[in-house]
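Hey all, sorry for the wall of text incoming. These are the two entities for the joint prediction.
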Amino acid sequence: MQHFSIWSLLRNGMSYHEGWQKHWRSPAPQREYDAVVVGAGGHGLATAYYLAKEHGMRNIAVVERGWLGGGNTARNTTIVRSNYLWDESTALYEKAMKLWEGLSQDINYNVMFSQRGVMNLGHSLQDMRDIERRVSANRLNGVDAEVVSPAQIKEMIPFINLNTRYPVLGASLQRRAGVARHDAVAWGYARAADALGVDIIQNCEVTGIRRENGAVVGLDTARGFIKTPKVAIVAAGHSSVVASLADIRLPIESHPLQALVSEPLKPIFPNVVMSNAIHAYISQSDKGDLVIGAGIDAYTGYGQRGSYQTIEHTLQAIVEMFPLFSRVRMNRQWGGIVDVSPDACPIISLTPVKGLYINCGWGTGGFKATPGSGWAMAHTVAQDRPHALNAAFSLDRFYTGHLIDEHGAAAVAH
Amino acid sequence: MLLIECPYCGVRAETEFAYGGEGGIARPLQTETLSDEQWGDYLFMRKNPKGMHHEQWRHASGCGRWFNALRDTVSYRFEAVWKIGEPAPTAHSAGTAKEPT
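and here's what came out:
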């Protein structure tokens, strides 16, 4: 792998940048691997990277139905934060945050992680009580968080209209939170995993999961049978579809989640503003476009598109809070398929089938967890048991009743 | 926006309806004898198919009544709607609601 640095940039500049290699190979699948990850999104690629880096498993592959980073990794609103309410989630998301803070150096790829701060607005007395509770819980768990007043919000964003139909009474602020370049995360992990010998096989749909005596023996794919004792399903919106190949039922429902970006503007929006109560979140990308996310559509769907009234609902809230943006034109609008779990928490778990592992249920907020998710999943796959970080996020919890209800911190805006 | 046919009121806009999740899930009887697995299956596990989905909708801003629907989760097209308690239609070919063109 070519090392990216100011010196390699200068050196390649001398030869008109014609000497750069491809970021990753496109190998044909081998007959056998020690482990195969199904799904080359951010989480799947991170899983493969940490399997190779932390656990020394080099004879592994990632198989992907489409192209890498082409699903929700390419469709999210790039927000990264770790201010969750419950201890279990905070530990997992904070692990991800710590990995984010060193990620560009670790994988030698600029993921443009920008800790510009994330505010979660409160619009009612109850919202503010919940915010104060969550901020206190965060601080007890060693996560930076503070409650900010309307005056402080106004100071950060002078053009915000606080006197809306549901007046802004305050917000929680996590200053270490921010945004990252979503595509670069997939590309960076793919490149780093590839450099460690991981085969990334695109256009290779999994059509069957072969089992013998309750244990995985291999995968039927569009490019033939691949023998492997370990399969990690990291398929986001399609988790139920892939898991059904091994007759595993999941507590997952896949919903369309929409987002949109505006035409590029000069820098105006200093941080990320999210509001659960009015279903809107907004930030500005480094390219200049306003990135706006909506809530999920109520019905389940795999269509990667949703209903217009969902977007209208979000934009009404955005325009009321930021009247300045009322005449900004929207450039693109799209939908992703999010795998929503009953308690708004992920599943990183063993399954009833030996050698089959699943990582799903991230719902509307998986991007922020990409490094931590991959790290914990890699441990689970390599050691055949969950790490302390993800022990609570088992598939079992829907039978034991030990749910981790993050709807308060996570329900809509993620 | 989808156009959805309420079996009681006819075709209306999607915003009048509330989604009620997977249909045809019967509440188990003799709940005192259920195992944790059976409870978990009933409460949380869902088919979540890519394709035809038997589901429940409620005409919340209309007659307020629940009904069954068969909808394709990829095209979002409704293939059939029928009242609660009625048998599911056998022929699903006639699209009863169409997306606006």
